[in-house]
Amino acid sequence: HGGTVKGTDHIYLEVVSSQDEIKAYPLDHDMKPVPVLDVKLDGKMTIPRKNKSEVVKFSARADYFSAKIDSKSAHRYELDVTITHGGKAEKLKFSVEPQ
Questions:
Q1: What are phi and psi of 22, to 5 degrees?
Q2: Which of 22, 30, 47, 50 has the largest CB neighbor count within 10 A?
Q3: DSSP assignment of the chain
Q4: Is the pTM of this model over 0.85?
């Protein structure tokens, strides 16, 4: 999908961002889609030079998760995601540059 892919021991996550939305695609180790019903995502974003983070609420779509955000026209922000799959919760950190 043209995003940034990071992985854990059990699952990968591809993040694609724009100024007002984050799309997250769960993938297995063969880079095949993992059903969104098998995955739970929790996130928060931190904008540099702002001393607070905001909760990111992901909602499941057909084959990805979507979250509406306000990046406040930042050129970059940090996205911390907790991905739960197969009973295991793991953390991933992305440096996001909205497209």
A1: -115, 130
A2: 22
A3: --SEEEE-SS-EEEEEE-SSEEEEEEE-TTSPBPPGGGEEEEEEEE-TTSS-EEEE--EE-SSSEEEE---TT-S-EEEEEEEEETTEEEEEEEEE---
A4: yes
* Count of beta carbons in the 10 Å neighbourhood of residue 58: 21
How far apart, in whole angstroms, are the C-alpha atoms of residue 14 and residue 63? 12
Which tens digits make up the pLDDT trace of 58-68? 999 999 999 99
pLDDT digits (tens, 9 = 90+) for 36-56: 999 999 999 998 877 789 999
CB neighbours of residue 38 within 10 Å: 11
